[in-house]
Amino acid sequence: MRSLPLPLALGARLSPVIVLATMGWALSSGPLDPSPTAEHKSTDSPQKNNSASAPSTSAASKTYTASPSPCTGVTADTVKSLVPGAKTAGQEIPSTDKSLRRTCSWNALKGYDYRWLDVSYEIKATDSAAEKAYKDRTTDKSGGGAVPGLGDAGYSVVNLSTEKKQQTREGVVMVRASNALVIITYNGSDFETQKAPSTDEINKGAIKAAKDAVAALEDGRQS
Asked: Where is this region: Disordered (predicted)?
């Protein structure tokens, strides 16, 4: 890819991201959360169910007492494959209480292809509190579907947004594991063609990161 000056669209796209990071943003939604046109799941999320949730084994249990380090929530190989050119160490976003919520971000521009990945952990007081939060959030981000095999309940949704002819496609995967929530946000744009990566690419990438993050959460409990 030839080396050309950074397009104006990219500068406009990154400005709000920098502002949010400076403010210590650590919300469960991704860094780019416009009012999107909903796109539905790929073959990795075959069952449409906005509030899918497995029954809690114990409403008062607290399997997880603290969030793991989010920057070790995905493997270096996963970072390299999903965010080419990013530093695998990631950057943790400041949080007011690291025992309850932690988020790590990776982003990079390789040529004109831009990718952003967020991994967030949230620890709730009980399984039932996590279950309620999971249900509320999946209802809020409707149009996706259940992802089997992720924690007690998993959900995936992909949306496409367009700003000044520049497309961005974003996938969000939410997982409830006992009293913990794992939230993955993965998005991308091509600033040369102004097109976005395919729904399948974004959805599969977000699910891949979610599998890593859930495994890291479970490993932390056992250690």
From this structure: 31-71
Nearest Cα to Cα of residue 155 among 66, 26, 25, 28: 28
Sign of CA dihedral 191, 192, 194, 197: negative
- Fill in the amino acid letter for 220: G
Residues 147-157 have a mean pLDDT of 97
* Integer Cα distance of 22 and 156 in angstroms: 28
Domain that holds residue 68: 28-222
pLDDT of residue 61: 53
Here the CATH number for the domain that contains residue 43 is 3.40.1000
- Domain annotation covers residue 90: yes
**Global pTM exceeds 0.85:** no
Q: From CA 137, how far away is CA 128, in angstroms rounded?
A: 14
